[in-house]
Design goal:
Blueprint: H1 3-16, E1 22-27, H2 34-47, E2 52-56, H3 64-69, H4 84-94, E3 101-107, E4 112-120, E5 126-131, E6 150-154, H5 158-171, H6 176-196, E7 203-205
Helix pairs in contact: 1-2, 5-6
InterPro entries: P-loop_NTPase (IPR027417)
Protein name: Nucleoside triphosphate hydrolase
Keywords: Hydrolase
């Protein structure tokens, strides 16, 4: 296990104390490695005997039919293309650890969110929430300020982010032209927006830790 992951897991445990429910946010631009970091931190906490669930923000993508109607399909992933109210409702429902909460999960291969695809149990002490806008300072996303107990920001240099985004879209077998449209027409400008409009985090990293 990466020593820094173990160090962060230790810091999370120290801050959690005897809390029944503890929310960890992992934020960052698209392609920064948030889901990888979330899974690795979850595994580190589980190795220490803790119960952990991961809640991805991607499950709150608006459906493509709505985005087409609003002329936003090509910009899927920008702040306006998520169900932020639904996401806030779920995070607030998860907070007290007094009931099971079913959350949606995004299927990237089909480009759609699957409702009620993952249960979060009251017994899950640590909830790792990962997504682009958890520390975003604009719009309704700003209502997340103060709701998390520990925050991590992944903030890779733009050139690293660009390379990772190319790798992502090539991995989905997109043509060079289609991948270029995704990277330069949407993801990279959105990444800059996220990096330039964020609240301070407890920990800021340039790369996701293995």
């Amino acid at each position: 296990m990466n020593a820094r992951i173990d160090e962060i897991a230790g810091a999370v445990l120290d801050r959690a104390g005897h809390s029944k429910r503890f929310l960890v946010a992992i934020a960052g631009p698209p392609g920064a490695g948030k889901s990888t970091m979330a899974d690795n931190l979850a595994n580190a906490l589980k190795a220490k005997g803790e119960s952990v669930a991961v809640l991805p923000m991607d499950g709150f993508h608006m459906d493509n039919a709505i985005l087409i109607e609003r002329g936003l399909l090509a910009r899927k992933g920008i702040p306006e293309t998520f169900d932020v109210r639904g996401f806030l409702d779920i995070v607030r429902a998860v907070r007290p650890a007094d009931q099971e909460v079913l959350v949606p999960v995004f299927d990237r291969s089909r480009e759609l969110a699957i409702a009620s695809a993952r249960p979060i149990s009251p017994e899950d002490r640590f909830i790792i929430i990962e997504g682009n806008y958890l520390l975003f300072t604009q719009g309704k996303w700003a209502e997340l300020d103060g709701i998390f107990d520990y925050t991590i920001m992944l903030a890779p240099p733009i050139e690293v982010l660009e390379e990772r985004l190319w790798d992502r879209w090539r991995g989905y077998k997109l043509s060079e032209e289609a991948a270029s449209a995704k990277v330069y027409g949407n993801d990279l400008p959105n990444g800059r927006l996220i990096l330039e409009n964020r609240r301070p985090a407890d920990v800021t990293l340039e790369i996701a830790l293995a």
